[in-house]
Each structure stands twice: as C-alpha cells, then as structure tokens.
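Why do we care about 3D structure at all? Because function follows from shape, and shape follows, mostly, from sequence. That is the central idea of this module. The next example makes it concrete: a single protein chain, its amino acid sequence, and then its structure expressed as tokens.
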Amino acid sequence: MTDQVLDILKLVLLVLLYLFFARVLWAVWSEVRQPANARSVADFASHQRQPSPAAAAAGPPPVKSGRRVTKASKGRGGIPARLAVLEPRERRGTTFAIAAEVGIGRDADNTIVITGDEYISSHHARVSTTDAQVVVDDLGSRNGTYLNGAKLTQRRTVRTGDRIQVGYTVLEAQ
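And the structure:
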C-alpha cells in the first residue's frame, strides 16, 4: 500500500472516532436535559411520600386586606402547596393554595379565573393532589397546557419550582 492510501485510512478512522464520540455526547445530553416531569405519574408511584401538612391544607385564594396580601404557605419536600403567578406582570405575585382540586380557565366556577386571554379555554387545566403528589391535567384545551415547556399529553406530577403555562399565563409551583 502506498502512503496516500494509509493517510486516507487514518483520516477515515479519525472521522469515525469523532462521530462515535459525538453520538455518545448526544445520548448523554438527551438524558440529562430531559426534565424530571417528563416521566408519568405511574413512574413516581413507588416513591410515594407521606403527605405534608402544607400540601394537605386547602386554603382559599389570597385575600387582599388593605395594602397587605395574605399568601398561601409554601410547600415542603418537593411537594408544592401553592401556585404563584409569574406572567403576566400585572398579576405577578398572586398566589393560590393547591386544594384537593384547582381548576384553571375563563369560567367563573374555576379556582383560578383568567380573563382577557383568548388562548385559554373555559375549563383549561386542573391541578390536584393524589396520593401525596400534586398532578396537572390538561382538560382537552385547544391550545394545550405546558409543564416546564413541554406540552401535556397525559397527567404529570408537579414538583416545587415547576412552571405551568396556560395561554400567556405562567404559574410556578411553590
């Protein structure tokens, strides 16, 4: 064999080695960047915890009394006890206690009523507590419900710090 053929074979081997390395990095990155909530509720069934008093308490939405706003208590142990509005800015800081079931939508019979957003259905989503876990369901809304940027296709667990988006409204679980 000539030196040219050996040089070409060396380059081909080097390119294949780099492609293999890139594929390994891609596999590791895709596992790392997958949010913890991409797993279904059934995956967490074996990791059930005792319900915390904060998660079990069902309080009313915040009540304005003068200049001060009474807020629902924060959750503990990764289990959220309230939802706080992050967007839109006009409603930022408003909190809602996570009771047995929290409805989100345009209709007045929802716990969290969002008006002025044409992307929200009358009954858009539901956040509820089941077996010491907080879960979120999309109620067949036309524009969907998002958990940490991923569109919901089935019931998902919600942990402290997760973000739920319905229309233009972003709620953070606390």
